[in-house]
Amino acid sequence: MATGLAAALSGCTLANAITPPIESQLYPTITEARGSDATIEIPSWVPDDATLIRIKENSETGAKIMQFGDPAPEPIGGPCDASIIDNAPPMQDTWWPQNLPVNEATCQDGWHIVFMYGSQYFAWTP
To answer: In sequence order, what are the beta bridge partners of 113?
Structure first.
């Protein structure tokens, strides 16, 4: 059976089965997140004083999740289109909340954004 599975999976499919096309980064500040060494692009709406920016991306689908802190939080985004308001985050991680109020999200440039815990933003692209 293992031989049949190996034969069925080839090339990129086999590589993705072994190592999914997922990349994660942690940037201490927005300066590092927008620096020349950054490997995952951070949206322009992330505030200049954002800290501890965590981002995870599936390079095959383009789906992303992101978390960052802001010592002086301000509202980000506007109302989401009713047809996409309940779109759930496309992936999880240990730092991602288990119960995220997706119906409270705002939207900006294709991202869903939820503000929680007094200073933390959680955002995703569906």
So the answer is: 106, 123
**How confident is the prediction along the chain (126 residues), in pLDDT tens digits per residue?**
545 444 444 455 555 555 679 999 999 999 999 999 999 999 999 999 999 999 999 999 999 999 999 999 999 999 999 888 778 899 999 999 999 998 899 999 999 999 999 999 999 998
The tokens for 115 are 């503000």
Q: Which is it for the CA torsion 98, 126, 124, 105, positive or negative? A: negative
In contact, 49 and 70? CB cutoff 8 Å: yes
**122: nearest Cα among 102, 27, 48:** 102
Contact 40, 23 (CB under 8 A): yes
Residues composing the chain? 126
Cα–Cα distance measured from residue 65 to residue 123, given in angstroms and rounded to the nearest whole number: 6
Nearest to 67 by CA among 22, 126, 20, 26: 26
Please indicate, yes or no, whether the overall pTM of this predicted structure exceeds 0.90.
no
